[in-house]
């Protein structure tokens, strides 16, 4: 694909969970259309989940950008659906229901003779207040371990910069190890002030950047996602956190207390000096923080 990626070298299943934030038709063509061509050439069924456009319009758009989409649809290799006619048909958006849906989609593709499944999802619906959209970060973080590690699925999450607010785009794309940029994209590839990254070997995520008054909403969103992650123990890697202010440390202490109340553990890894300093100043309030050796 004529795309460039950022992020650490992923494991094979993480290589198959990618995202692209694009602006305009040309960048869409260099991400979505090329991804569809790649999937068809590899003998995979390709399922394209459009946001609001009619399936016929998506097929026509793919055709304008070099995909023999009409023929692919006729032979069953390409399926185009609107999100609201498929996984958003019964709101709210539910990550657990989505995991089951991916199992069914992959099983159907294999049963009908395909080597696996390629999927494209237009994610602009997350900016419209769809019920359950607040669980999208949780969903992106859970996919690698719960879906891609088990299924022959390769998926591209598309975030339209003209529709999805920049802060939301930055937060959700940072939750992918593989972030693709269409060749020719102008502008700097900036990281969000506070980003969330998935962990390869355990349930949880990492924080990168600074947690202060300007990024309070991001931290709240991240901790809400953390509370919904499955398992008896969740991990928070703080090695990429430059700074945590007092309110951020208090939020982590509250999250740790909430997890204990649910019979779970929240374990912090490699916290910055700012957290240790606040914990030393307020030992009683921060006594419930569990820091890995």
TrEMBL record:
Sequence ranges assigned to domain STAS in this UniProt record: 236-278
Signal peptide boundaries: none
Pfam families, per the entry: MEDS, STAS_2
InterPro entries: MEDS_domain, MlaB-like_STAS, STAS_dom, STAS_dom_sf
UniProt cross-references to Gene3D superfamilies, sorted A to Z: STAS domain
Protein name per Swiss-Prot or TrEMBL: STAS domain-containing protein
Organism from which the protein derives: Streptomyces radiopugnans
């Amino acid at each position: 694909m004529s795309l460039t990626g950022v992020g650490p070298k992923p494991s094979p299943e993480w290589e198959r969970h990618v995202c692209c934030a694009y602006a305009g038709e040309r960048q869409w063509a260099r991400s979505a259309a090329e991804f569809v061509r790649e999937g068809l050439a590899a003998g995979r069924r390709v399922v394209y989940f459009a946001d609001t456009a009619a399936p016929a319009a998506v097929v026509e758009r793919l055709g304008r950008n070099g995909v023999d989409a009409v023929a692919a649809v006729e032979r069953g290799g390409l399926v185009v659906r609107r999100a609201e006619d498929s996984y958003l048909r019964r709101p709210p958006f539910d990550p657990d229901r989505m995991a089951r849906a991916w199992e069914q989609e992959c099983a159907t593709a294999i049963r009908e003779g395909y080597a696996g499944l390629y999927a494209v999802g237009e994610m602009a619906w997350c900016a419209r207040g769809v019920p359950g959209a607040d669980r999208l970060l949780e969903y992106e973080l859970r996919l690698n371990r719960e879906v891609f590690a088990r299924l022959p699925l390769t998926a591209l999450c598309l975030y339209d910069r003209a529709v999805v607010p920049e802060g939301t785009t930055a937060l959700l794309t940072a939750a992918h190890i593989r972030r693709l940029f269409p060749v020719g994209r102008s502008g700097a590839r900036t990281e969000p002030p506070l980003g969330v990254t998935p962990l390869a070997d355990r349930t949880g995520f990492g924080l990168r950047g600074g947690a202060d008054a300007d990024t309070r909403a991001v931290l709240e969103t991240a901790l809400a996602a953390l509370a919904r992650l499955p398992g008896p123990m969740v991990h928070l890697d703080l090695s990429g956190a430059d700074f945590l202010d007092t309110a951020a440390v208090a939020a982590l202490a509250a999250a740790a207390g909430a997890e204990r109340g649910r019979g779970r553990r929240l374990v912090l890894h490699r916290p910055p000096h700012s957290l240790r300093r606040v914990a030393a100043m307020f030992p009683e309030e921060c006594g419930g923080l569990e820091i890995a050796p």
